[in-house]
Design goal:
GO molecular function, one term: succinate-semialdehyde dehydrogenase (NAD+) activity
Radius of gyration: 23 Å
Helix content: 25-40%
Distance between the termini: 80 Å
Protein name: NAD-dependent succinate-semialdehyde dehydrogenase
Pfam families: Aldedh
Number of helices: 15
Shape: globular
GO biological process, one term: gamma-aminobutyric acid catabolic process
Keywords: Oxidoreductase
Strand order of the largest sheet: 14-15-16-13-12-18-19
Length: 492
Amino acid sequence: MSEPAHALPTLNDASLLRTSSLIDGEWGVGSTNLLVHNPANGARVAEVAGCGAEQAQAALVAAERALPAWRARSARDRGVLLSRWAQQLRQNAADLAALMTAEQGKPLAEARGEVAYAASFLEWYAEEGKRVYGETIPASDASKRYWVWKQPVGVCAAITPWNFPLAMITRKVAPALAAGCTVMVKPAEQTPLTALACAELAQRAGLPAGVLGVLPATAEDSIAIGQLWCESPVVRHLSFTGSTEVGRLLAAQCAPTLKRLSLELGGHAPFIVFDDADVDAAVEGAIQSKYRNAGQTCICANRFYVQAGVHDAFVDKLAERVGALVVGAGDQPETQVGPLIDAAAMAKVRSHVDDAVAQGAQLRVGGQPRDDLGSGFFSPTLLTGVTPRMRVAVEETFGPVAPVFKFETEEQAIAWANASDYGLASYFYSRDISRCLRVAEALEYGMVGLNTGLIASAEAPFGGVKQSGYGREGGHQGIEEYLDLKMVCVGL
């Protein structure tokens, strides 16, 4: 079967379509061909010159060379450039959203929202970089004085995922640049176009050569690039968002050089609805958390625990909302749920649903691929009668499937919610202030959404515990990941 025709979106500024790496301020050539496809129809969007270890080494040399001058600039000057970059993103939001939808599949409305979210990190750290304060410590010895300085860690590397191809770059790069570090980025092989357009806008904002490098690569070459950066003593910090399995591998590769790591890994978020909850608000939160980006987010709700007293009412209302969601290609204005990223994602979603049904779960809504739309679409799904034995109870689905478990007591809900190796995000709904405090404290997760399904923001720390990784992005905590402490003891 022949490949579908090209599906390049129409851009207001065609020069935002970049198809090669940015290294040392120059748009270069690659060693391999990286084909970018639209997940909604399989059509080829573009062909990108992919990088390998040779280009990764060149980017590393450039980043090391650019570091002294960038580190020496004032935080205010670095902030001005970050603000300009944010302005460029906002001014070109329509084109960035079109590129994102073409290669990632999310609805245009969500893509435009991601552009705003991405710009917010640049804006936040443009200001936060000016608030990196040291300390003067009173000494017990009158003949000494102690100072504590915060200094940039040095050259950094970032490996970003496909599900948020713009925001995950700025969330990592903005604090690093604000702190005075230089950064190399390896975007996901599925979504290099958004990353390269972002780099083009950074160039327009005036970032000096070598301060930011962006290297698209195939899956095979990505392994070589990651290994090179992990093993290099020049790279002092690595940030990665992706699977726990890959995170473990990167941590092992980084161990000999003892470099700093920020790992945002797998999630398996519980969503708890207590008898005293506002059921309508909980349903709205469930829609926002579960079905955004077709359920392909690391913090989307994966397990719905609903107390017996409101279980039926919650399920009925949620079923009505889920059944009304419009599935389709992301570039269609009415679309609310787009395609899954690839065939492997589709296979996992189908296997989870099939396993649950085979073990006695009931399909209230959906449960089938939408073959009438193409091979990448799956109906928004609601399962009831789910038990802890089913795969949806222990594995992250990463798709538009909401499994509902019925529970009786608060203690049971907390025990089920914490019965996971992962600890990224969690959610619960209650109007009992005492319960709100008890449950928020008891949940073993790095983030808790209380009476809301949307929790991420540039000004708040983002990250998990247990097998969901370590380190934080966002908030004033995010810039600390890129700063070393230096104690200076002065003898009088």
